[in-house]
Structure formats: structure tokens, C-alpha cells
Specification:
The complex is a heterodimer of chains A (304) and B (392).
Chain A (H helix, E strand, L loop, with lengths): L1 H51 L15 H7 L3 H34 L4 H9 L6 H12 L4 H9 L15 H25 L3 H9 L4 H29 L3 H6 L7 H10 L4 H25 L2 H6 L1
Helix pairs in contact in A: 1-12, 3-7, 3-9, 7-9, 8-9, 9-12, 11-12
Chain B lengths: L15 H20 L30 E5 L15 H7 L3 E5 L2 H9 L6 E2 L6 H6 L3 E2 L14 H6 L1 E2 L2 E2 L2 E13 L23 E4 L4 H9 L10 H14 L3 E5 L2 H9 L5 E4 L1 H9 L4 E3 L6 E11 L5 H12 L1 H11 L2 E2 L11 H6 L13 E3 L5 H16 L1
Parallel strand pairs in B: 1-2, 1-3, 8-9, 8-10, 12-14
Antiparallel strand pairs in B: 3-12, 4-12, 5-6, 7-10, 7-11, 7-12, 7-13
Helix pairs in contact in B: 2-10, 6-7, 7-13, 8-9
The chains are: A mainly alpha (304), B alpha/beta (392).
Chain lengths: 304, 392
């Protein structure tokens, strides 16, 4: 009896001890990042929300609660149209980036078995050059006297002085540049998914008579979907609010929602409207994340 | 009015990092603005009431002068090597520079809590700076070259009899176009900006005010600098209908100059610096004299209230105001300078002719329209519509 009681009690105390000590450590470890998030994320978000209803205002004296700016924004303002345009552009960028990155990730994870980490490093090399310089390089490539147009003149496909002008300062330029920028980011989660794929499943598929294409369609692709979705989010969420790329290569029609927000705060000094736009963007992104989160858990990205 | 120099690698772009920093700053100041909205009447060191005799000598100042400046005027970039800054730098060392890209952006940044010692806005914004209660008057007695400055410009910098603004550089804003590619319809006019024949080759300046002012002069409204809401709405609709003629709206002169040199842009709102850059690039360009009149600008310096470098700031401005400095500015940027003692025979003849440096009448109404003070409220009316033009 006594022995039994001891045996039952022992794990109990152990569990309690384990619970108490990590609790202390966990708090200590978590406090700085949580504090960081509270001070530099939550508080600003609350402030923005308050600015957006005019409880705070840039110019002292005019503070009172009003939803007018929200009403104006939601009631067919050009900014709302601009938002949907940004969403559309982001969707195109995300899909294109995923499509471009998948074969790369597939090759590195499943084909280039021994050199895969060297190759992974290689696709990250563009990050050694500043983003600004890479954008300038695109300007050189896409301009009216740029690499592409000069080539077209040279081959006689286009007459000299009649350049393909939508290459730069257009939505196309923004989308192209963003896809280029995000492909390495997107390749990583897909690579992780594919890399942790159980190869025996592919062997089993082959044993059961599946062609390589069937094996890909029925085994590889479904199992790598969590990585694909994660990759999609990696692009889609940050590009909706993209600011810098459209500023440099967007021209008149490539402007995105992020540029409008920056203008409201920096140029027009209309913090009220700027806060409405920012908070709207934040809300939509948060909702999207919540929706995506239902389809995805972090562990599934890693384990496939 | 930007004075960015062509191709200067020192020009600051608003990069991602800067944007983040700015955002952080903005948020931080948001807290401050929110908390201290009512009572911001803390006693400031170097407030307007202290007399010159009471000022501590220059040796007791920290000397870490910080100048909020247009890119291209800083040391040791192009503008600093032997330019308008060397008298100051030789004596007191290199000031610290931060960069503004427009008057509105500068106001916004200071409104958000940034506190340099000196800022280089344009005269039409002086009222906004005083209104914001962040600047103090200069003491002209501490600036020996002050007496050589153009009295008309000097007067423009006074509010309530106090010299809040020291005029420095001035110039025109006008359409610049490639004469080998563009043929204006009859008389020279701002309407070139709305000419369907040059779709995709035009660049307007990205600014809340001027695009409406230009429309105002083209359409002969009562006061382009204080248009009614109806006029502004009409202008907005018109600009939206014409914006697709533009390749882009430029915000950095360096980018514009690069686009002109690369053949992407043929017609642009521009300052003298772009004319010089295009000529240097070997292009045939005309700096237009539109029948509606050129726009004009005059920029200079305001002194922040909280500066601990009162005397350093005045020494810095003396360097800027001297006639040697004026000569240098004209030769290198083709901008005008407030110093009237400058010897124009030492300046390229082309600049004197194109920019009427020898003829003060060319700067007066109705030949040119110098930027006029616009109240913060009116500015907001223009700005919100410009935002809509861009978002549309």
C-alpha cells in the first residue's frame, strides 16, 4: 500500500515542481518580447484607433469623437477603390511568386539532395544587395532606353523611339519587382514542407503503379500545401500595404494603399484620415490571418 | 523647392528603414501630442525675449549644429566642398544634416517631434512655422551679410516686425521640355502639362498645392492660392481626367533628372537645377516662359525655439548669406540668391538669360507668381483633393 502510494505521489510532485520552475523561467523569457509588443505594437494600434475617431488629433483643440472619417472612407471614397486595387495586385504577386518558387523549392528539396543547403544559400544571395539598389537595377532594365527596350530596338522588333512604355512606371513594374523580391521568401516555407516529406510515400506510390505526375498530384502536392499556404501568406500580407516599390517604379497607376497612408501622414498631415486607412488595413490583414490560421498550423508547415 | 543636386550619391531616399524610423517617431510623438495637447508652454532656452547681450558666448554653446536641409546643400556633398558652407565648416567643423523632401514633409516631421536647430523651408510656409510655435526670430545684427540681402525678400520673411525667416535661395518653377521631341501648341503655356499628344511622357510634381495653382492660372480663377471648394473640385476632376498623361508624379529631383536623361520623361514641372542637369546631359531642353507666368519660390532659414546653438546658427547663416556663397549657388545650381551684391559677370550668361538673374521685374507679378502664404486650413483643402487625384 505504502509503496503504491509513494509511486502514485511521486509523479504528482514531480509534475508540480516542473510546472512551478518553468513557469518562472517562461515568464522571464517571455516578458521582454511581450512588453516589446505591447509598447511598440498594441499601444500604437490603440493610438491609431483613437486618432481615427478624432479622440486624439494632430492639431490640438479639435478633439471630439466622430465616425465621419470612417463613413467618408467606407462610402465610396477613392481610397477604398485603391485598397481593392492593392488587394488585386497583391493577389497576383502572391500567386505568381508561389508558382515561380515551387519548382525551385521542389528542385532543392527533392532533386538536389546533397547540395541543397548550398543552393538554399544561393537563392538568398540577392539579400546581400540592398533592396533600393535592386530596385534601381530594375529601373535600368525596364526604362525606355533600358536593357529590354534597347534589345527590342536592336532586333528591330520595335522601332527606335517607340519603346514598350508599360515596362516601367506601371502596375506591371510593381508586380514584376515584387514577385522578384518575394520568390526567395516564398521558396523557404515550401522547401521546408517538401524537405520533411516522407520519401517512403513516394516509393509506395511508385510501387502501386502511380506515374511520377500522379505521385506528385496525389502525394507531394497535397502534403506540401501547408507550406504553399504559408508561403502565400508571407507574400500576400506584407504586399497589400506595400509602399516603397510602388513609390519607385509604380508611376501614376501603380500607386498602392501604403502610398496613400504615407501621404496622409507625411504630406497632407491628415492624421485622421491616415489613421482610418491604417486601421482599416490592419483590421483586414488581421481577419485574413485569422482565416488562414484555420487552414494552417505552424507544425504542419514543418512536418508536411 | 528641392535643391537636390543631379546624380548626387548623397541624396537621401526615404527607404524602408527611414520609413520605419519615421513611423516610430510619428507614433512616439503621437503619444506626446496626445498627452501634451493643451499645455505646451514650457519655458524654452533661447526664447525670443532674451537680448543679444544676455546670450552666452559662442564658446559655451555645445556646437553640435543640426540642420534640416534639402539634399544637395549639405557638407561634404557637392554643395559643401567649396560651396556655401565652407566659411562655417572651416571655423566650427561639420554640422549634422538631416533631409527634407518637401515643406509639408518638414512641417510634419517637426510636428511629430523632431527638433533640429535650423530648418530650410520656403517663405510661404513661414507663417505655418510660426503658427506651430516652434521657431524664434533671428537677430540680424549677428549676420554681417544681412544688409546685402534683397530688401523685398527680407521683408517677406518678417512676421509682426520680427525676422523669422532669412531669405537665401530663390528661383522659378516652370515646364521644362525636350525641344527635339516636343512642340508646344502655339504660345508657351502650362497647358503643355495636359497635352494628349505627349501621353506617358509628362511628369507633374507630387505636391498638394501647385498642381491646383497651375490649373487655377490656366483657367483664370480669382485667386489660385485660395481657390473656392467648387473650383478645387472642378480642378480635381480635371486633374484626374488628365493624370494618365503622366508617367509619374516626381518627388525627388534626382529621380526626375535621371528620368529626363533616360528619355522616360519629356515634359516636367521643374526647377533650374533640372535645366542645368539636362543641359549637362547634352539634351536640347527649353525652360519655358508660359503665358500664364512662371511660378516662383524663395526659400531660406528659420531658427528653432529650443536651439542651444543660437550663435552657431547665426554663424552658419552668415556663411550662407555671403556674396561668395551666392555666386557659388548660382554657378552650381542656377538658382538665384538673396544676396544682391553678387557679381553676375562671374556667372554663365545662359543662366542669367534663362532665369532673368539680372532683372528683378521678372520675379514680380504678373510675370511670375511667387508662392504665397497659405493657411494650414486652406492647405488641407488642397491636400485632401490632391490625395484623391493620386488615389483615383
Amino acid at each position: 500500500m505504502a509503496v503504491e502510494a509513494q509511486e502514485i505521489a511521486r509523479p504528482e510532485t514531480r509534475r508540480r515542481a516542473r510546472r512551478a520552475r518553468p513557469g518562472f523561467v517562461t515568464t522571464g523569457l517571455l516578458a521582454p518580447p511581450v512588453l516589446w509588443l505591447v509598447i511598440f505594437f498594441l499601444v500604437p494600434v490603440v493610438l491609431i484607433a483613437l486618432y481615427s475617431v478624432n479622440v486624439f488629433s494632430l492639431y490640438p483643440g479639435g478633439q471630439y469623437f466622430t465616425l465621419d472619417s470612417w463613413k467618408n472612407f467606407l462610402d465610396g471614397s477613392p481610397f477604398l477603390d485603391l485598397f481593392w486595387k492593392s488587394v488585386r495586385m497583391s493577389l497576383i504577386v502572391s500567386v505568381a511568386a508561389v508558382l515561380a518558387a515551387y519548382p525551385i523549392a521542389y528542385f532543392i528539396a527533392l532533386v538536389a539532395s546533397r547540395r541543397k543547403y548550398v543552393l538554399l544559400l544561393l537563392i538568398l544571395t540577392p539579400f546581400l544587395v540592398s533592396y533600393f539598389l535592386r530596385l534601381l537595377a530594375w529601373k535600368v532594365i525596364l526604362g525606355d532606353q533600358g536593357v529590354i527596350n534597347t534589345f527590342l530596338y536592336w532586333t528591330g522588333i520595335r522601332a527606335e523611339g517607340d519603346p514598350v512604355s508599360w515596362l516601367i512606371y506601371s502596375q506591371f513594374a510593381v508586380i514584376l519587382t515584387l514577385v522578384y523580391v518575394y520568390v526567395p521568401f516564398v521558396a523557404l516555407p515550401i522547401f521546408v514542407s517538401l524537405d520533411s516529406l516522407d520519401r517512403r510515400l513516394l516509393e509506395a506510390a511508385a510501387d502501386l503503379g502511380a506515374s511520377r505526375w500522379q505521385a506528385f498530384r496525389k502525394v507531394t502536392l497535397p502534403l506540401s500545401l501547408p507550406g504553399v499556404i504559408a508561403a502565400f501568406i508571407f507574400v500576400f500580407i506584407p504586399t497589400i500595404g506595400e509602399y516603397f516599390t510602388p513609390l519607385l517604379v509604380g508611376g501614376v497607376n501603380g500607386t498602392m494603399f501604403g502610398n496613400a497612408i504615407a501621404d496622409q501622414f507625411g504630406q497632407s498631415l491628415n492624421w485622421l484620415n491616415g489613421s482610418v486607412l491604417s486601421f482599416f488595413l490592419l483590421t483586414v490583414v488581421a481577419l485574413l490571418l485569422a482565416v488562414f490560421a484555420r487552414f494552417l498550423t505552424v507544425r504542419r508547415v514543418a512536418t508536411g | 523647392m528641392s535643391k537636390e543636386r543631379d546624380g548626387s550619391p548623397f541624396e537621401r531616399k526615404l527607404g524602408r528603414d527611414d520609413f520605419l524610423k519615421l513611423s516610430a517617431l510619428t507614433v512616439g510623438s503621437g503619444v506626446l501630442a496626445a498627452c501634451g495637447a493643451e499645455g505646451s508652454s514650457a519655458p524654452e532656452p533661447g526664447g525670443g525675449t532674451t537680448t543679444q547681450a544676455e546670450r552666452p558666448p559662442i564658446s559655451s554653446e555645445p556646437g553640435d549644429l543640426e540642420v534640416f536641409e534639402w539634399a544637395g546643400y549639405e557638407y561634404p556633398a557637392y554643395g559643401g566642398k567649396r560651396g556655401q558652407l565652407w566659411p562655417y565648416v572651416d571655423k566650427y567643423g561639420k554640422p549634422k544634416f538631416s533631409f527634407l523632401t518637401s515643406d509639408d514633409q518638414a512641417l510634419g516631421k517637426v510636428r511629430a517631434g523632431y527638433r533640429p536647430d535650423i530648418v530650410h523651408p520656403c517663405v510661404d510656409y513661414t507663417g505655418n512655422w510660426v503658427e506651430m510655435e516652434v521657431v524664434q526670430p533671428w537677430d540680424p545684427a549677428l549676420i554681417p551679410s544681412f544688409k546685402e540681402l534683397d530688401p523685398v525678400l527680407v521683408k517677406g520673411g518678417q512676421i509682426d516686425g520680427q525676422q523669422y525667416f532669412i531669405p537665401a535661395d530663390w528661383g522659378f518653377s516652370s515646364p521644362l521640355y525636350r525641344s527635339d521631341k516636343v512642340e508646344p501648341n502655339g504660345e508657351e503655356s502650362w497647358e503643355l502639362f495636359y497635352d494628349d499628344r505627349y501621353k506617358g511622357k509628362i511628369s507633374w510634381w507630387d505636391t498638394p498645392l501647385e498642381n491646383f495653382v497651375i490649373w487655377g492660372y490656366v483657367n483664370g480663377v480669382g485667386d489660385p492660392w485660395k481657390m473656392t471648394d467648387d473650383e478645387l473640385d472642378e480642378a480635381k476632376d480635371f486633374l484626374i481626367s488628365k493624370k494618365n498623361l503622366c508617367r509619374n508624379f516626381w518627388s525627388s529631383q534626382t529621380d526626375l533628372d535621371a528620368d529626363i536623361a533616360a528619355g522616360n520623361i519629356w515634359i516636367a514641372y521643374s526647377w533650374a537645377g533640372s535645366y542645368v542637369a539636362a543641359k549637362d546631359a547634352g539634351l536640347d531642353v527649353v525652360y519655358s516662359e508660359p503665358k500664364e507666368g512662371r511660378l516662383g519660390w524663395n526659400c531660406g532659414f528659420v531658427l528653432m525655439k529650443e536651439t542651444e546653438n543660437f550663435r552657431h546658427a547665426h554663424e552658419f547663416i552668415e556663411g550662407w548669406s555671403s556674396k561668395e556663397s551666392a555666386e557659388w549657388i548660382i554657378n552650381n545650381y542656377a538658382y538665384g540668391h538673396a544676396n544682391t551684391a553678387v557679381d553676375l559677370s562671374k556667372v554663365p550668361e545662359d543662366y542669367v538669360k534663362v532665369f532673368h538673374l539680372d532683372d528683378p521685374k521678372a520675379r514680380e507679378e504678373p510675370n511670375a507668381h511667387y508662392a504665397r502664404p497659405v493657411s494650414t486650413a486652406d492647405r488641407a483643402r488642397y491636400a485632401s483633393r490632391w490625395d484623391e487625384v493620386k488615389a483615383a
